[in-house]
Design brief:
By secondary structure, the chain is mainly α. It has four helices and no strands. The protein is about 70% helix and about 0% strand.
């Protein structure tokens, strides 16, 4: 049986897909020596992206096994949002540093992936939207 178009909703698992896409893109960009000839900042950026993915996966596991534990759900979502903020800061450093060859359209796409994930996490409902 199909659902009418006006009644369709996006899946709550969209945030998992968004986190995986962000992590894959981040790894691809940071492992490219053309963009990041010096690996120190690239490693920090990769760790933040992987931490975001880890936090949203923990959130899914908590929801699956302990739906009643809203404190854990909120903590994992806030942790993911904190790593998102750190990733924004690191990308800003990389973009403004002439050592790294990052073009404006590349950063714009990357930031768009982050914004999509951030919106998906906030739509889950446990995190207060500021």
């Amino acid at each position: 049986m199909s659902v009418r178009q006006g009644e369709r909703k996006t899946s709550n698992l969209k945030y998992i897909q968004d986190a995986q896409i962000l992590a894959m893109h981040t790894l691809q960009m940071c492992n490219n020596p053309k963009h990041f000839p010096e690996p120190t900042l690239a490693e920090a950026i990769k760790m933040e992206a992987l931490s975001i993915l880890r936090s949203v996966r923990y959130n899914l596991a908590t929801y699956t096994y302990e739906k009643e534990n809203k404190d854990k759900l909120t903590r994992h979502q806030l942790d993911a949002l904190a790593h998102i903020d750190a990733l924004y800061a690191l990308l800003d450093l990389a973009y403004n540093n002439p050592t790294y060859n990052l073009e404006a359209n590349s950063i714009e796409y990357w930031t768009g992936l982050i914004v999509n994930l951030e919106d998906s996490i906030k739509q889950l409902g446990s995190v207060p939207i500021c």
